[in-house]
Task: structure prediction
Amino acid sequence: MNKEAFVRAVSARCGILLSDAHNLVGALLESLTEGLAEGERCLLRGVGTLHVVQRRGGKRRNPRTGEEVEIPPYRAVLFRPSHRDRPHP
Result:
């Protein structure tokens, strides 16, 4: 599901105008982005948790050319689904 399909689903489920749903989804994503940029953990009960982790850099190899490339350390966003949504082993 892409963002546009998500906006349409929110609009249909909530019975609101498409433009209002677009504003609502945009505000939600913007708030999540700002929180994650500040290093906060975003807990959405019943959905999951978004948090930022620091990845170490290092040397990686380009599989096409075999050339080694130096990758600097970077931050990545991880999503962990809530316990209710996780598949049982």
